[in-house]
Write a structure and sequence with these properties.
Elements (H helix, E strand, L loop, with lengths): L6 E7 L6 E8 L2 E5 L6 H15 L7 E6 L9 E6 L2 E7 L5 H21 L7 E7 L1 H4 L12 E8 L2 E9 L5 H27 L6
Parallel strand pairs: 4-6, 7-9
Antiparallel strand pairs: 1-2, 2-3, 3-5, 5-6, 8-9
Length: 206
């Protein structure tokens, strides 16, 4: 739950056509990122704080994806809320199915530490979300059909670890996939920087 004062810390345009990214800090241990339809930090900050105050709950584990009702258009398609309790990614339920939300939660919990451990200094891991048309899902050129409606794999791309998540179009929209790619990469960069900072800080008494 949001308990601190809402103070916008940053808002920047990112090099993705039609996309903007806003980062909002509530206190030292609590912040949110989202891709609103327009970047107006004052209005977005109040919209996010109101949403989290009314509907925010701690995650059931280190990270959780939730398909929820999000009526305020200023919230965009998804809000990532990070706190000491963990990370919750709230997505508009008409853009994300419950089954894929559970799959994303499982993948994120199992892959995040692997990605961070495999990443090198100055090269944070990345994540990608892609939507495959439902008609093509079972016709994919694999020995076995992809497990419907979501699957993920970890590989290296330009010597950086990358998780690619494929979701069926019956459970995720391409627009949400683009937003989740932005939010996921931003969150991984933040966690990578935190880990590097802790590694560079001498232990007390050392």
């Amino acid at each position: 739950m949001v308990t601190g004062t809402v103070t916008p810390s940053a808002s920047q345009l990112v090099p993705s056509p039609g996309q903007s990214l806003a980062t909002l800090t509530f206190d030292a241990d609590q912040w949110a990122i989202l891709s609103p339809p327009r970047v107006d930090t004052r209005l977005v900050a109040h919209a996010v704080a109101r949403f989290l105050r009314d509907f925010g709950l701690p995650p059931d584990g280190p990270v959780e994806f939730r398909a929820v009702q999000m009526d305020d258009p200023l919230l965009g398609l998804a809000v990532l809320h990070a706190s000491a309790a963990g990370t919750v990614v709230y997505c508009r339920r008409d853009y994300l199915g419950a089954e894929v939300a559970r799959g994303l939660t499982a993948f994120a919990r199992s892959s995040t530490e692997i990605l961070l451990a495999a990443s090198g200094p100055g090269r944070p891991p990345r994540t990608r979300f892609a939507v495959t048309d439902h008609a093509e899902w079972t016709r994919h050129s694999l020995p076995e059909p992809w497990p419907h409606p979501v699957m993920a794999r970890i590989a290296r791309d330009d010597d950086e670890p990358v998780t690619t998540v494929h979701a069926c179009s019956c459970q995720m929209s391409p627009q949400l996939a683009d937003v989740l790619t932005l939010l996921g990469c931003t969150r991984l960069r933040h966690m990578h920087a935190q880990r590097a900072s802790r590694a560079a800080t001498p232990a007390a008494g050392a």
